[in-house]
Amino acid sequence: MGGTLLAEEQEVDIERTANAQQVDTVAKGFAGVSPGSPMLMMDVKNAMPQGGFEFDAGNAILGLLLVPVQVSGPGGKTVRGDAFILKDSIRHGVNAQATYSFSAIMPLQLFK
What's the pLDDT score for residue 33? Predict the structure, then answer.
């Protein structure tokens, strides 16, 4: 994130959507789809080191700043782009590892 590798990253969920809108008519019933705004949504879960944040998304969330991201995918392909981080979450408790998670959104990108 932001040009650095997240060494503590444990899990990444990526969802891509066309956001196409279903079009229904009285005569035809389902008539197809109307183009939408294609997006890629990403949820990232990190282990939180004892020393604190590896990456703190607070400033990016507060300032609605674009953050450059790159995620490795299948077959050595990657998806990259500039994303807005919408929210983050910290979790810790007794006998459990501390985790830091955040959610990002960007225009739909292809794995290359």
Answer: 96
